[in-house]
Design a protein that fits this description.
transferase; RimJ/RimL family protein N-acetyltransferase; globular; acyltransferase activity, transferring groups other than amino-acyl groups; Aminopeptidase; GNAT_dom
Length: 166
């Protein structure tokens, strides 16, 4: 499945994107909120393999964000299920050079629209480190509100909720 917006193509993320995703993750300003020092080229490849399996198992998952005009890889946006909570998360990580241009919001809106029409869930979550102010601002613009706090990898994060209108 491919989602398209005026500026983006969102294609299933898989191992073929591992090198480009590692280029995004290798920026310390991006990595600090998506895994930090634990990220390596190998862990990124393994992560893309798991996400490819999610596409096979569920029919949706994380997407590679491709700029339609140039074909450039910008990062990832998509849906993941948190098994411990049985909730679906909208997650995103874009290269620093792609931030602040409305691209993440554009891709997230495409996924929210898809989820509202195709998932049985009545809501999505966004799991955000409270120090990640740009991500918090984006979640707020998308309509997410703080629902609760959880501890993930020894870090207290906010779990933000977006009700899916039917």
């Amino acid at each position: 499945m491919i989602l398209e917006t005026p500026r983006l193509r969102l294609v299933p993320l898989g191992p073929e994107h591992a090198r480009e995703l590692w280029n995004v993750y290798s920026d310390p300003e991006v990595a600090r909120y998506v895994g930090g020092d634990s990220l390596t080229p190998d862990s990124t490849r393994e992560q893309t393999e798991r996400w490819a399996q999610t596409w096979t198992d569920r029919g949706y998952g994380q997407s590679a964000v491709i700029l339609r005009e140039t074909g450039a890889f910008l990062g990832r946006i998509g849906l993941s299920v948190w098994p411990d909570w049985n909730e679906t998360e909208l997650g995103y990580a874009l290269s620093r050079s792609s931030q602040g241009k409305g691209l993440a919001q554009e891709g997230c809106v495409a996924w929210i629209d898809w989820a509202g029409s195709n998932l049985p869930d009545d809501h999505l979550i966004a799991v955000i480190n409270p120090l990640n102010l740009p991500s918090l601002r984006l979640a707020h613009r998308l309509g997410f509100t703080l629902s609760r706090h959880e501890t993930v990898n020894d870090i207290e994060v906010g779990v933000h909720r977006l009700d899916l209108s039917r």
